[in-house]
Write a structure and sequence with these properties.
Elements (H helix, E strand, L loop, with lengths): L4 E5 L7 H12 L8 H11 L7 E7 L2 E9 L12 E7 L8 H15 L4 E6 L3 H6 L3 E8 L2 E9 L14
Antiparallel strand pairs: 1-2, 2-3, 3-4, 5-7, 6-7
Length: 169
């Protein structure tokens, strides 16, 4: 992890919200047919909570965003029984391979743990190896809005309770 990268919580009035919403809309907008970029920006602003669920985090190089991840109550419209969710983990292509996604995931895990959640979920079509390496386990294979995805679960442990499941920074 590069020393100059820092992870920050975003507020709804952050100047970075529109940029992050554009990235995630470009990457996953096909899962939400008919959702405009303007709607995606408004929804992301609503997810910028002060703590817990929802929260949005950005990886910044100085004051320039290079990645994002969120903690949300609902990320899969037909699995509202599962909550909360790690969502919208995205790192700019030129910044990948430097541990930024892992660091963002760890920050969201820390947030979920601090709010008393014992576990949380994500879904991914293609990043299962990354998440397995970070301690996530497959829960369900399924089709979601025309895309084959894996729902994964991460059981959170109290710091110090199981050192093997923690990630060093």
């Amino acid at each position: 992890m590069e020393a100059r990268i820092r992870i920050v919580r975003l507020s709804g009035d952050s100047p970075h919200v529109a940029t992050l919403a554009e990235w995630t809309h470009d990457a996953w907008g096909h899962l939400h047919p008919g959702r405009s970029l303007e709607t995606a920006i408004a929804l992301l602003r609503e997810e910028c909570g002060p703590a817990g669920v929802p929260s949005v985090f950005a990886a910044l190089d100085g004051d320039t965003p290079v990645g994002t991840a969120s903690l949300v109550a609902d990320d899969m419209s037909d699995r509202r029984d599962l909550t909360p969710w790690l969502a919208s983990v995205f790192v700019l292509p030129e910044w990948r391979g430097r541990g930024i996604a892992s660091w963002l995931v760890q920050r969201v895990e820390d947030e979920a743990r601090a709010q008393g959640h014992g576990h949380f979920y994500l879904y991914t079509p293609d990043q299962q190896p990354l998440y397995r390496r970070l301690g996530w386990r497959d829960q369900e294979e399924r089709d979601y809005r025309g895309e084959a995805v894996t729902i994964m679960r991460r059981d959170l442990v109290t710091p110090g309770a199981d050192a093997d499941q923690s990630i060093s920074r």
